[in-house]
Amino acid sequence: MFDASPRPELLALLAAVKAEPDDDTRKLALADWLQEQDHDADHARGEFLRGIVRYHRLDEDDPDRVGLAGGLSALWKHYHPAWLGPLPAAGFRLWGYLSAGRGLLVPSIEGRQVVAKAAAAAAGSAAYAWVGGLNFFQLSGGQLTRFARSPLLDSLVGLRLSECYVTARSVADLVNNPRAAGLKSLDLGKVSAPVESIAASPHLAGLRELRLWQSRVGDAAFKALCDSPHLNELRVLDVSSNELTIHAARAFADGTGLPALTALDLGGSSNHIGPDGALILVHKPNAGRLRKLSFWSIGIADYGVEAICRQPHMNKLTHLDLSGNLLTNRAAVALAGAEHLKTLEVLNLKTNGISGDGALALAGSPHLANLRRLDLSGNRFGAKAAAALCERFGDRVTLD
After folding, report:
1. CATH code at 295?
2. Phi, psi of 66 (to 5 degrees)
3. What total number of domains does the chain contain?
4. What is the pLDDT of residues 32-80, one digit of tens each?
5. Residue 270 reports pLDDT greater than 80
6. Interacting residues of 46 by C-beta distance below 8 A, sequence separation 6+
7. Under DSSP, is residue 244 helix (H, G, I), strand (E, B) or coil?
C-alpha cells in the first residue's frame, strides 16, 4: 500500500537519518517506529532497515552475510512495489539496494526524465522521502539547471553526475543554489567542474565527500579547495587523474582549510606530483590528519615513500595506496621498518619492482600486525618470499 501523503513522523525520522547517514542509531530508531505501525509494508521495511544495518556491520567475508542477503532479497522482492510507489513510473530506477544508500534509496535517472512532470509530481511523495541520492546519466547542462531549481534537490544528501555532458555554468548553478545545502556527497568525475565555485559556495558547508576524478583540475583550483573557508566538514577528496603538479602538494601542505579531511586521492599518471611533491605534502602537519592516502601511479619513487616513513605525524594512516610507481626493495624495506605506520590496515604495492628481499622485509616486519589487506600482485619475487608472506599474512595478502 502506497502512502501518497508523507507522515510527519516519518519525515522527521528520515531527516534525522539524512543529517547523519553513517549513524546506525538513527536508522534503528526509524526501524523501531516502522515496526510499530499497522501496515505490513511499514513493518517489513523496519525489518529490512534493521537487516541492512546488520549487513553492513559484518565483515565482507563473514559467512552470515550470505544468509542475511537472502532474507533482505526476499523482503525487497515482495514489498518493493509498495515501497517505491510512483518512482519507477517517473523514471527512477534502483539497481542495488544493498549497497548504495545503506537503507536510503539511491536511484538512477536520465536527464529528460528528471525534468518531466512525473518526476516533479513524485517529489512530494512518501516514496521520494526515502531517496537519499541520485545517479544521473545522459544529463545536459540545461537539465541540470532545471533540476537544481526543483524540489527534487531539497532532501538529497548525495549526487553523482559522473560522465554527464553538463557545463561548468550548470554545475555552478547547482552548487550556488540554497537547495543544495543538504548535500554531503558530490561526484563530478569526468565533468568540467567549476572548482572555484565549489570552494566558494556557502551552501556546501555540509559536504563530506567530493570526487573530481578526471575533471581537469589544475593547481590553482586545487589550492582554492585547500583554502576554502566553507568545506570544513569535507572528509574525502578525490582529485585523481587531473593536471596537478608539485604546486598542488605545496597548496595542501600550506592550506588553511579542509580541517576534517581524512582521505585524499592524488593518484593517476596525469598528476605530476612526483617524489618531491610527496615529500613536500607529507612534511608538514596538515598531512597528519590523513587516514587514507592514495599516491598510485604518480612516480613517487623510493625516496618519496621514505619521506612518508620518516614523518611521525603520519601515524594515523590506515590506508596507503602506492601501486604503479615502479618502487624497489628500498621502498619495501622503509615501509617494513616504519614504526609509526603500525596503524596501516590496507597497503597497496601492486605493480611495482619489489623482489625477494623487499618481500621478505615486509613478511618479517614487526610493525604491520594490523594489516587486513596487502596487495603485492604484479611484483616479481621467488617462492621463498611468497611462502613467507603467506605464512605471515595468510589470505590477507594478494600475490597475483
Report:
1. 3.80.10.10
2. -65, -50
3. 1
4. 999 999 999 999 999 999 999 999 999 887 889 999 999 999 999 999 9
5. yes
6. 30, 31, 32, 33, 34, 35, 37
7. coil
Which run of H or E residues covers position 390?
helix 383-393
- How many CB atoms are closer than 10 A to CB 60? 6
Q: 53-58 contacts: CB < 8 A, separation 24 or more?
A: 53/24, 53/27, 53/28, 53/102, 53/103, 55/98, 56/102, 57/24
CA distance 256 to 253: 9
All 3 cell numbers of residue 157?
544528501
- Bridge partner list, 386: none
Expressed as residue numbers, the domain containing 262 is: 86-398
Q: Is residue 38 part of a domain?
A: no
57, part of any domain: no
User: Which CA distances in Å does 352 have to 305, 314, 317?
Assistant: 13, 22, 21
d(C-alpha 20, C-alpha 40), whole Å? 27
DSSP 177-228: SGGGGG--EEE-TTS---HHHHHH-GGGTT--EEE-TTS---HHHHHHHHT-
Helix axes 246-254, 274-283, angle to 10 degrees: 0
What CA–CA distance (Å, rounded) separates 52 from 50? 5
Degrees to nearest 5, angle at CA 239 with 236 and 241: 145
In the numeric block, the cell 582549510 is attached to: 257
Per-residue pLDDT tens over the stretch 365-375: 999 999 999 99
Q: Give the H/E segment covering residue 348.
A: strand 346-348
Residue at 226 is within a domain: yes
| C-alpha distances in Å from residue 110, one per residue of 39, 90, 96 | 32, 10, 17
Give the residues across from 165 on adjacent strands: 140
* Edge-to-edge strand ranges of the sheet holding 292-294: 108-110, 133-137, 158-160, 185-187, 209-211, 236-238, 263-265, 292-294, 319-321, 346-348, 373-375, 397-398
Establish if 330 belongs to a structural domain.
yes
Task: Read off the pLDDT of residues 320-341 as tens digits, 9 standing for 90 and up.
Answer: 999 999 999 999 999 999 999 9
Q: How far apart (Å, rounded) are the C-alpha atoms in residues 39 and 34?
A: 9
